[in-house]
Amino acid sequence: MWLLVGLGNPGDKYARNRHNIGFMALDRLADKYSAFSLWKSKHQGLLADASLAQQKVYLLKPQTFMNNSGPSVSATARFYKIPPERVVVFYDELDLAPGKIRIKRGGGNGGHNGLKSIDAHFGKEYWRVRLGIGHPGAKERVIGHVLGDFTASEKAWLDPLLDTLALHLPHLLAGKLETYQSKVAQDCPAPK
Q1: Separation of alpha carbons 153 and 12, rounded Å
Q2: Helix (H), strand (E) at residue 129
Q3: What is the mean pLDDT of the chain?
Q4: Cβ(1)–Cβ(12) under 8 Å?
Q5: What CATH number belongs to 2-187?
Q6: Alpha-carbon span 131 to 102, nearest angstrom
Q7: Phi and psi torsions of 110, nearest 5°
Q8: How far apart are alpha carbons 61 and 91 in whole angstroms?
Q9: pTM of the model
Q10: Does residue 91 contact residue 69 with C-beta atoms inside 8 Å?
Q11: Distances in Å between the alpha carbon of 176 and those of 59, 86, 146, 180?
Q12: What confidence tier does 192 reach under pLDDT thresholds 50, 70, 90?
């Protein structure tokens, strides 16, 4: 069993924000694999599920706002008895260039409030898929940057990245997260 979590903020106001790239990644997975159920409200989030590659896969978009994602993730993982090593969180990363991807298990939160909340409620031993959105250059511009919508020029790398994340999902479900990272990076190189 796997629990794939996308971080973001609920509502149309935030739907195209850079901070919502985690939600966007899960939406693309659900679109690509028609086996996923419709989204339903459960455990303070929107949940979809499917059987893929002989495994049960749950997709979760917490609806508690980014900074309070932990209770939804924790409740869902506990309800379905999914251990941290089978939980993968997709989220925006300021300190990665736009379109870059990095995957690791455990570690720090890098100041990301969504991860801080998950760490506090669930522990730190889950997998993290960091999706680069780039840094605006000055600390005082960070909030406006993450809560700003992707621009038309950014969509040139965003859509292929989301498609490639979905395309290579079988590697993730096989437990080959490093292969997943390298395949996505190879097939969808970040813009120069």
Answers
A1: 21
A2: strand 127-132
A3: 95
A4: no
A5: 3.40.50.1470
A6: 7
A7: 60, 25
A8: 11
A9: 0.96
A10: no
A11: 18, 12, 30, 6
A12: low
Which residue in 91, 138, 134 sits closest to 116, CA to CA? 91
For residues 69 and 109, is the Cβ–Cβ distance under 8 A?
no
Output the 3-class SS for 26-39.
HHHHHHHCCCCCCC
- Tens digit of each residue's pLDDT (9 = 90 or more) over 161-175: 999 999 999 999 999
Residues whose CB falls within 8 Å of the CB of residue 155, separated by 6 or more in sequence, listed in order:
none
With CA atoms as reference, report the closest residue to 28 among 57, 50, 6.
Answer: 6
Pair of tokens at residue 155: 């969509």
Whether 60 and 45 have beta carbons less than 8 Å apart is answered as yes
In the residue annotation, 145 being an active-site residue is answered as: no
Are 114 and 60 spatial neighbours (Cβ–Cβ below 8 Å)? Answer: no
Q: In what order do the strands lie in the sheet with 101-105?
A: 40-42, 45-52, 55-62, 2-6, 87-93, 127-132, 101-105
